[in-house]
Design goal:
Helix content is 38%, strand content 28%. By secondary structure, it is α+β, with helices and mostly antiparallel strands. The strands form two sheets. A four-stranded antiparallel sheet has the order 1-8-3-6. A four-stranded antiparallel sheet has the order 2-7-4-5, with no helix packed on it.
């Protein structure tokens, strides 16, 4: 658990959490190593996982076009878990990497228990909406 807590401390999403809170996140999240080319999400499909990139790169595609790359400390999969809808993009690993995976129930538990995580997720979602269509945001 100590190694996992060290990984969690390096993730900006969890920056506002204390030691006990980080331990709780560590209990709720599974740490996994994934190979190159693994699809984490598939646009239009439903799924129940939220991902935090500990070490690696993920390519994000919408409509078959690459729209961004996510790297260490970034997270993905929150939109479908917040609204219950299908995935908004396909996310594929580029190279091997290490990730935290949080299931639907655990994700909502994190949001309810830790306001700093809830705020960080909401801010990231707002930024992603702005990046998709700057003219539609006010």
């Amino acid at each position: 658990m100590d190694q996992k807590l060290e990984l969690l401390r390096r993730v900006p999403l969890f920056a506002g959490l204390g030691g006990r809170e980080l331990e709780e996140v560590g209990r709720l999240a599974d740490e996994v190593d994934l190979p190159d080319g693994r699809q984490l999400t598939i646009e239009g499909r439903t799924a129940n996982e939220f991902f935090v990139i500990i070490d690696g790169t993920v390519r994000i595609d919408r409509g078959g076009q690459t729209v961004r790359h996510l790297r260490d400390g970034d997270f993905l999969g929150e939109i479908a878990l917040v609204d219950g809808g299908p995935r908004t993009a396909t996310a594929t690993t580029e190279g091997p990497g290490r990730y935290l995976v949080v299931g639907h129930r655990e994700f909502h538990s994190l949001l309810e228990r830790f306001p700093s995580i809830q705020l960080a997720v909401l801010q990231a979602m707002a930024q992603r909406v702005r990046n998709l269509d700057p003219e539609s945001c006010t």
